[in-house]
Design a protein that fits this description.
6-stranded mixed β-sheet, 5-stranded mixed β-sheet, single chain, alpha+beta, Heat Shock Protein 90, rod-shaped, 564 residues
């Protein structure tokens, strides 16, 4: 006994008509126009009239009508992309089907075919030879799906390699891989041609095969259009709208990721800070910090705090201008840069290209570096000045990639300095050494009395500061720096650096002289702010750059002024 492998063609057609084989009714338009293309047609005419859709082409046609109705049999010499498989999609729409080509013609009454179960089709000879195909599909669904079918025809006509005339009007051609975006990158390799663009969140790449839309492919934070080369991907029959997960698909995913990574590298090099911040998560999806470190360039703008703090109507203070000027000059000297040149990029829309040392070079050469976010510059202005006072060069992280890079490289944020940096204060030659110093301390005894402090709480000395922190596991020590004052809470004393005062023209009276002279006032003015600053630490236990400290210092200063 033997059994025969059979196929229930009528059952297959019934499934097609129920919509369980092809994804959508517009697939009929896809398949018929695809057959026109494969037949080498130069011109295709498509007309909708009520319940009828007619497609005519000038391709090579088919001399054998049997091939058209053999499921899984191809007329194009390529078994993996069969003609018959796709042509059967017409049964999604057709209650009646008419086909003409070469010297033959046939009609199929689909509804009667289901009534009788008869799959035999009468074919008649024609008097005239028809170049190409003429397919007429008639059915209620043609009229019901008119807008969807016509829209699909227009989309395909815009990119197809033939001229499509739709209801008497020639469809205007559009480049298949054209996309409107401020930044895009074109790729061409053995698998595909593509135009890719950065994207935030969910985005898709519209894919094409043989100038025919395939599917929207999601690959993460990237959008665009992609046209597969023939044979570069395996499409799932019958409608070829899905990829089959095989070696070709794996090679495609690998190549696509490489190209997206390259696109984002170029985007990072060209984008504005606002764009980089907007696409930071997308960039991080494809590029590790090490992969974009080399693209981060340091120029003088990263030391220009004014651009991140001043409103347009505000005039920056001279002290702020000097701070920026000094920071930029120190930066130029560090890297032997005479002038930061701004090159221009090629293209219609020219834009400045940043030039300067790479961030990795700056961090490697300058161990006394701290950073601050662009959004924090105004808020942390005092922290910035404090860091610079202690010997650090503060650099602005103008976008989120710089922030991640600083963290990756172990560079301290300005707010971390108090936490991670050890301050080593040095005191030498403590106590008055001259009559002038004795006179100053005698005057400041009024301050000690006013605040109920022990006599001698305020003293003079030679002060210096060393700061030590860890960068990349290596202990780094800043250069020794002079400081104006020091609060030693353990000793309950305040020290003033004797170099804080210009003693040269000070004509000091005896320490116990009862009146305050004009010379005394000149010296007191030089030290009052420092005394108030350090007493705020001692009396109120405040920390630098806090609002509490600023308020306490201001109050103490006012009280000291009234004492004299």
């Amino acid at each position: 006994m033997q059994v025969e492998i059979r196929s229930n063609i009528l059952g297959d057609i019934a499934k097609i008509r129920k919509g369980v084989v092809f994804k959508e009714h517009a697939t009929v338009v896809d398949e018929l126009l695809q057959n026109c293309q494969r037949a080498g047609a130069k011109n295709v005419n498509m007309v909708f009239e009520g319940q009828t859709m007619t497609i005519e082409d000038d391709g090579v046609g088919c001399p054998d009508p049997q091939v058209v109705f053999e499921k899984n049999t191809t007329a194009w010499g390529n078994e993996d992309e069969a003609f018959g498989e796709g042509f059967f999609s017409v049964f999604l729409l057709a209650d009646k089907l008419e086909v003409e080509s070469c010297d033959w013609r046939l009609e199929v009454d689909v509804l009667k075919m289901f009534e009788t179960g008869n799959l035999k089709i009468d074919v008649s000879k024609t008097d005239e030879w028809r170049q190409g195909f003429r397919v007429r599909v008639t059915g209620a669904k043609v009229e019901e799906r008119y807008y969807q079918l016509r829209r699909e025809a227009r989309v395909l006509g815009e990119i197809a390699p033939f001229v499509l005339t739709l209801d008497g009007h020639e469809v205007e051609k559009k480049p298949m891989l054209e996309i409107e975006a401020r930044f895009s990158r074109r790729f061409a390799n053995d698998l595909y041609e593509a135009v890719l663009v950065p994207a935030r969140g969910y985005a898709v790449i519209q894919t094409f095969y043989e100038s025919r839309p395939v599917r929207e492919h999601y690959s993460g934070s990237v959008g665009g259009k992609l046209h597969f080369r023939k044979g570069a991907i395996t499409l799932k029959a019958p409608d070829r709208k899905e990829f089959i997960w095989d070696e070709k698909k794996q090679e495609f995913e690998k190549q696509l990721r490489q190209d997206v990574m390259q696109m984002y590298r170029e985007f990072v090099a060209q984008a504005t800070d606002e764009e980089i911040d907007s696409y930071a998560d997308a960039i991080g999806e494809y590029l590790d910090v090490d992969e974009y470190l080399a693209l981060l360039i340091v120029d003088e703008s990263l030391f220009d705090f004014l651009r991140y703090t001043q409103k347009e109507e505000d005039e920056p203070k001279e002290a702020d201008k000097e701070q920026v000027k000094k920071a930029a000059e120190d930066f130029r000297q560090l890297f032997d840069l005479i002038e930061m040149v701004q090159d221009q990029t090629d293209g219609d829309e020219e834009k400045p290209k940043r030039t300067g040392p790479k961030l990795t070079e700056v961090v490697k050469k300058d161990k006394r570096l701290a950073w601050v976010r662009a959004s924090e510059v105004d808020e942390l202005k005092l922290d910035i000045r404090s860091a610079e006072y202690y010997g650090f060069r503060v650099i602005v992280a103008r976008n989120k990639l710089f922030e991640k890079a600083f963290q990756h490289l172990g560079v301290l944020h300005v707010k971390q300095l108090d936490e991670d940096v050890e301050k080593h204060f040095g005191k030498d030659r403590v106590g008055p050494r001259t009559k002038k110093e004795e006179r100053l301390l005698a005057l400041l005894n009024r301050v000690e009395t006013h605040f109920d402090l022990e006599p001698g709480t305020i003293d003079v000395a030679n002060l210096e500061l060393r700061m030590v922190y860890t960068l990349g596991g290596e202990e780094v020590e800043t250069e020794t720096k002079k400081v104006h004052g020091l609060c030693d809470r353990k000793e309950k004393k305040v020290y003033l650096d004797r170099k804080l005062v210009d003693w040269t023209e000070y004509r000091a009276q005896e320490p116990d002289y009862p009146n305050v002279t004009i010379h005394d006032y000149r010296v007191l003015m030089q030290v009052m702010q420092t005394v108030a600053h350090e007493l705020a630490h001692l009396l109120f236990l405040t920390e630098d750059n806090s609002k509490e400290h600023s308020d306490a210092e201001s109050q103490i200063y006012k009280e000291i002024v009234r004492l004299f």
